[in-house]
Amino acid sequence: MANVVVAQKLAKRFYLRRNPIHSVKELFLGVFHERHRMELQEFWALRDVSLSVAAGESLGLVGRNGSGKSTLLKLIAGIHRPTEGQVFVRRGVRIASMIELGVGFHPELTGRDNVYLNTSIYGLRRAEVDRLYDAIVDYAEIGSFIDEPIKNYSSGMAMRLGFAIVAHLDPDILLLDEVFAVGDADFQGKCQKTMREFVERGKTILFVSHSPDAVRQMCSRVCVLSHGHVVFDGEVTQGLAAYDALVAAEHATVPSR
C-alpha cells in the first residue's frame, strides 16, 4: 500500500531552562552569583528518526517515558515543527488526534459547546456537527454532564468526550497517545472495538501505549524508541520483546541502594 506518513531524519530540539528568573532581584543576583544565573540546556527529544507508515497500518509506538513517542505524534500532527529533517503526510488526508487530554477543550465552556468548538478545529461545519452530535454524546456516556463546564469533568470523563469526538470525525489517520490510561474497562473496550473497526475500514492508526496487551490487540507493527532514537521497527511480538530487553538493561545499569 502507498505510504501516508513519511519521516526522514527527523529531529526535534527543545531548550530547558535552569534557574529560571522570575523577578528583578533574581536577575540582579545572577550578575554576581553564578548559581543564580539562568541557563538554557539543549534537549533533543528526537534524533535521526526515519520511518514510513502505509495506509491501513496500525503502528504501535512504545518506549520509556521521555523516549520521544509523544513528540513524534505531535510532529506528524503539525503541532510542533521539526528542528531537522522532514515529515510528509499525504495531501488530502484528514488527521484526528488525541495526544494530550483536554487539548482543544475550553475548560469554562460546557461539554456541548466544546463538541462544537473541537470539531470546528477539524474543519467541520455546524450543520455537520448537528448531524453527529447525538451520536457523539451517546458514545461518550457522560449523561447530563454534557451541559456542565469541562473544568468540572474528571479525567476519565474528558477522555470519553475527547475520544467520542475523534471517533466520529471519520479520519484517515488517527493519532492516539495513552488513550487507555484513564477511563473504566468497559469504555476502554469500546475504544478498542472502534479502533479495530477503523483498521478494518483501511484507516491508519499511530498508537502510543505502555500496555502490551493493547498493542498486541491493536497493532500490526511496533516501533521502539529510546532516548529519541528508533531502536526497533518491525513485528509486534519481537518489538515488545525488544522493549522488555531495553527496560531490563536500563534497570541493570541503575545502582541499587
Q: What do these coordinates show?
A:
With 257 residues, the chain is an alpha/beta fold. It contains 8 helices and 9 strands. It has helices at 24-32, 69-77, 111-121, 126-140, 155-167, 185-200, 212-218, 236-253, and strands at 3-18, 39-54, 58-63, 84-89, 95-98, 173-177, 204-208, 221-226, 229-234. The chain has a 6-stranded mixed sheet with strand order 5-6-7-3-8-9, sandwiched between helices. A 3-stranded antiparallel sheet has the order 2-1-4. It is globular and about 55 Å long.
C-alpha end-to-end distance = 51 Å
> How many β strands by DSSP?
9
Number of helical stretches of at least 4 residues: 8
Series of secondary-structure elements, N-terminal to C-terminal: EHEEHEEHHHEHEHEEH
- Ranges where pLDDT stays below 50 over 5 or more residues in a row are none
Q: In which order are the strands of the major sheet placed? A: 5-6-7-3-8-9
Return the average pLDDT rounded to an integer: 87
Estimate the strand proportion: 25-35%
Helix content, binned percent: 25-40%
Could you tell me the radius of gyration in angstroms? 21 Å
Query: What's the main sheet like?
Result: 6 strands, mixed
Summarize it.
With 257 residues, this protein is an alpha/beta fold. It is built from eight helices and nine strands.
